[in-house]
Amino acid sequence: MRKSIYLGMKLEENKKPLTREKILSLIKGELSSAKILYATKEELLDILVNEQKEKISNEFIRLNNQTVNEKISEIFDFIEVITNILDKKQATIALQTGLGLLNKNRKNSIIEAKNILKEDGIYGEKTKASLYNACKNYNSRIIKKYILKAVLNNIIFNTKNEDKIDTKKLLNSAKIALEGKI
Q1: According to the 3-state scheme, what is the secondary structure of the chain?
Q2: What was the pLDDT predicted at 13?
Q3: Residue pLDDT, tens place only, 13-70
Q4: Nearest residue to 178 via CA among 78, 32, 64, 72
């Protein structure tokens, strides 16, 4: 059977094999000394897969049972991380841009909170209403993903004509710092 290469996939030769030690380092659960010593690679892989399934299931349940206030609190924690990387105004602009992207940049929506926000860096009543509306309709992870897209988008547009700023390096550092917080 011939393996197809899709866009973004690396060739099989570049892929490092999963060693027993690597699998053990990825497993978060408590393993007995006997299990560590005598378990086969396949048994350890099964433990790792089951841990990952449980983690995904727990996260799915958590996200679907969040209240609006819990979502808003989690998003503000994410905005605080962005503030530490950029500044407060840029973090608020990223929030406004992210909410605009999430609401498909609507201009004439019947629901005022779904209309596009002015990206001025001021957390006012319209931004607050838009965030509350987004939290009613989406889980916090989706909203944070859109805010991350906005951060990366704003970095590109703010630095594209600056010769002294390495945009790719800035994008990579922001992405690495923020993806773990989603």
Answers
A1: CCCCCCCCCCCHHHCCCCCHHHHHHHCCCCCCHHHHHHCCHHHHHHHHHHHHHHHHHHHHHHHHCCCHHHHHHHHHHHHHHHHHHCCHHHHHHHHHHHHHHHCCCECCCCCHHHECCCCCCCCCHHHHHHHHHHHHHCCHHHHHHHHHHHHHHHHHHHHCCCCCCCHHHHHHHHHHHHHCCC
A2: 53
A3: 556 677 777 777 777 777 777 777 778 888 888 888 888 898 888 888 888 888 999 9
A4: 78
